[in-house]
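From the pipeline queue, job 12 of 40. The input is one protein chain; the requested action is below.

Action: predict structure.
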Amino acid sequence: MSRAFLHLVPKIMQAKEPLKRIFMGRLIPLSLEITEGMADYEPPIEIPPDRANKGYKLLYAIGRK
């Protein structure tokens, strides 16, 4: 059975907030803008194409024409 079939995830964001608090903890409000210095810089780490991506939440890609 798929999750879509069970209708477990609400479609409205306000209905998702209590579920996020249960599973993720206290929610932190995000600012409306991204500013210089709001987070520490971490240089990208190359992931070899023959290895599974485990342990990373953000992926960056460089596209070339």
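Job complete. The longest helix spans residues 13-24.
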